[in-house]
Write a structure and sequence with these properties.
Elements (H helix, E strand, L loop, with lengths): L11 H4 L3 E5 L3 H8 L3 H22 L3 E8 L7 H17 L1 H6 L3 E5 L7 H14 L6 E8 L1 H14 L6 H7 L2 H6 L11 E4 L18 E4 L9 H12 L30
Parallel strand pairs: 1-2, 1-5, 2-4, 3-4, 5-6
Helix pairs in contact: 2-3, 3-4, 4-6
The chain binds farnesyl diphosphate.
Farnesyl diphosphate binds next to helix 2, helix 3, strand 2 and helix 4.
């Protein structure tokens, strides 16, 4: 590794993830620690999201997927759900100028049909308004679940098939077809998934697409996640050796990874 933490012989293009996904966890615990309402944690979480969007764009990230609201989050108190939805709406209205100025394209992933009409309208407007921008793409995962996304992709495939038998449909289905029927088939798979608040689980985020993603986990709660933390995640990613199932080049060793999910170096 050199001083930047990058693995030698990697070009800058390889050391910078093209697509970063973030599980923005810990808003509630952040608020609890301060003895304030959970909703205040979400308000602060939104500020962090806005800042990280800008930082990621400045760092040259091409795609940033933010896990805003899961298909499971409906189990929360309706007051909290309504509050998160109002934050999303407010963000899309108030920050449109920021997205325009930075040529950032807004997209959505998840089951849009399960969202309230006013949120759908706001998402549609933001998508239409920014669709031609060639800067970073921000994908808002809203009413998103990885399993739900896979099921919807399979359904899309079956619904668009000409009149063929189930056996024929089953015979033709493969990984490419499934990928091509996801919400945004043109997006590359995420290279790096960041998770805040210290949990080591996927929580149904990008299950299909994250097959070969590198994970970076920090104990920081999302409202406290700083630009330096984001840079630490990028540095940890640059230090990883991605093998996509192949053997480690040259070493013949068992472990290709040079840092663990917390970004701590691993001796080899
Ligand atoms: C996790 O904290 C966060 C959420 C459920 C989503 C809230 C996200 C935002 C307000 C940011 C929205 C960003 C954009 C760009 C619209 P948690 O409540 O699960 O925390 P806990 O696990 O500590 O309870």
């Amino acid at each position: 590794m050199d001083g930047t933490g990058a693995v030698k012989n990697k070009s800058p293009n390889e050391t910078l993830p093209r697509h970063v996904g973030i599980i923005m966890d810990g808003n509630g615990r952040w608020a609890l620690n301060k003895g304030i309402a959970r909703t205040s944690g979400h308000t602060e979480g939104l500020k962090t999201a806005r800042r990280i969007v800008e930082t990621a764009s400045l760092r040259g990230i091409r795609y940033l997927t933010l896990f805003v609201f899961s298909t499971e989050n409906w189990k929360r108190a309706s007051r909290e759900v309504d509050f998160i939805m109002s934050l999303v709406k407010q963000h899309l209205t108030r920050e449109l100028d920021f997205y325009r100025k930075n040529h950032i394209r807004i997209r959505h992933t998840g089951d849009i049909t399960g969202l309230a009409p006013d949120i759908i309208a706001e998402i549609d407007e933001a998508r239409a308004d920014t669709k031609d921008f060639d800067g970073m793409q921000v994908i808002l995962a809203l009413n998103y679940g990885g399993r739900n996304a896979i099921v919807r992709a399979a359904r899309r495939y079956l619904q668009n098939l000409p009149n063929v038998s189930c056996a024929e449909a089953a015979d033709t289905l493969d990984e490419n077809i499934l990928s091509n029927n996801l919400d945004n088939p043109d997006l590359p798979d995420p290279d790096l998934i960041i998770r805040t608040a210290g949990e080591f689980r996927t929580s149904n985020f990008l299950l299909w697409e994250a097959a070969y993603a590198e994970y970076f986990i920090t104990d920081k709660f999302w409202p406290d996640f700083s630009n330096e933390d984001f840079d630490a995640a990028l540095a940890a990613y640059a230090a990883r050796e991605r093998r996509f199932g192949a053997a480690t080049a040259g070493s013949g060793g068992k472990f290709g990874r040079r840092s663990n999910p917390r970004g701590e170096p691993v001796n080899q």
